[in-house]
Amino acid sequence: MTVLDRRRELGTLRLIGTTRRQVLGMVRWEALLVATAGIALGTAIALATLVPMMRGLTGEDPYVPPLTYAGFAGAAVALGLAATALPARAALRRTTPKP
C-alpha cells in the first residue's frame, strides 16, 4: 500500500532521469531496511518478555533452533521484498499521475 501511495514520487524520480532499475533498487533497499529493523525489534521484544518468563517458570533460558529462527527471518525478508517489488513494478509501468 505504501508503494502505491508513492506513485507520484516514483513517477517524479523517473521524470528527472532516474532509470527504472535505479528506482526498483531504491525500493528494494528500503524494503530490506524495514524488514531487517522489524526482525531486530521483534526479536528484542520477544527476548525481553520470554527470558524473564522462562527463567521464572523453568529456571532456564528459552531455546530457539538457529535454523528455525533463520527460516522465519528469511521468510519475513522475502515477504517484505515481494510486497514492495511487485507494486513498484506495476506503478512504474503506468504513466505519471497528473497533479
Could you explain how this protein is built, in words?
The protein is mainly alpha-helical and 99 residues long. Helix content is 80%, strand content 0%. α3 packs antiparallel against α4. The longest helix is centred in the middle third of the chain and has 38 residues. The chain starts with a helix and ends in a 6-residue tail after the last helix.
Keywords:
99 residues, mainly alpha, 80% helix
Helix content bin: over 70%
The global form is: elongated
Euclidean distance between termini CA atoms = 20 Å
Rg, Cα atoms, Å? 19 Å
- Uncertain runs with pLDDT below 50, 5 residues or more? none
Largest sheet: none
Number of helices: 4
Write down the secondary-structure element order: HHHH
> What is the number of beta strands?
0
What average pLDDT do the residues reach? Answer: 88
| Class per helix and strand makeup | mainly alpha
**What percent strand?**
under 5%
Summarize the SSE layout with pairings.
Elements: H1 2-5, H2 7-15, H3 20-57, H4 66-93
Short description:
The chain contains four helices and no strands. The chain has 99 residues and is an all-alpha fold. Helix 3 packs antiparallel against helix 4.
